D-serine deaminase-like pyridoxal phosphate-dependent protein
Amino acid sequence: MSYLDQITSPTLLLDEKICRSNLQKMADKAKRHGMNLVPHFKTAQSHIVGEWAKEYGIKEITVSSIKMAEYFCGQGWENIHIAFPFNPLETKKLNELAKNQSISVQLINEAVTEKLTNELEHPVGFFIEIDAGYGRTGVEVTDFGLIEAILRKAKKSKNLSFKGFYLHPGHTYYIENKKKIYEESIAALRMLKNKYRTEYPNLVTRVGDTPGCSVIDDFGDVDEMGPGNFVFYDMMQVNLGSCSMEDVAVALAVPVVDIKKDRKEILVHGGGVHLSKDVHQEPDGSKNFGEVVYLNENGWEIPIQRSFLKSISQEHGIINASDELLTKVKIGDLLGILPVHSCMTADCMGGYLSMNGEKIDHAESVTGK
């Protein structure tokens, strides 16, 4: 039976071949640059995708919450890093996880460092997150007083060990000159490594964002890369120049419920609760919530003429349809939507269907929202 025969409502499709190709390309790039690839699994959040990743030499992963770390514990990862300023209210849960799993956290202030110093019962590593221009979170790159205060407090604990510096140059999503951003980020990490490696000879530096890791070819002496969205990519990444549409590994299958040829509109069952409400702006200022693709037995194909989801509500989606699409589609058909933001779409849907008709896990389908 075709995977298409299983679909009666919005369903997130995952093309294993494309996903594996994305994993292979990023693993090869990391190897060429002498770097360790520690992908951020906030995008896939899947044990099965994790098993695919291991086939490309990936031994450690990054997650965005302790809940996600718990989901991946016991799956054979050498280390799981929580790339979010550690929430001190979750210290008890951290102790539970660290009992059986190598785990590391991100620290950005003295208060949380002191709490972990006093309350950790098992070994936990930590990175100091550095802000070198993004402005979201982290210790300012030249705030040596705070960096050293964190390190001093951590030294008082036998269970808290310094691993290195983590930098997420997330402004590559908003600023066109990614090369300049990476030059600044690499210089910041090099400066910190040179300043502290005498005292901490094994410290590592890690940089991670999908736009930069996809297009930059000079990482200096940075030790590790940690992109996440690359495993699936999405239309945001296509528009940023990180990848092509052919590299997008997920598509939301949506049923066609009405067609208005006079308005060149197609109504589908697929809205904000399935795709999230991330949006791309068209050159004319109109909104685009995802690109239409044609589904087939082997996955999907990109139309010659573009059609896109121009508006969504909770369950509804309205497609701005090309003449080509209007001649092909009928009520009751299925169409595919390449999402603007695959991480959020996957989180909304909580699971995947493969081209083989097999269900693929997602953390939300097991742990619940």
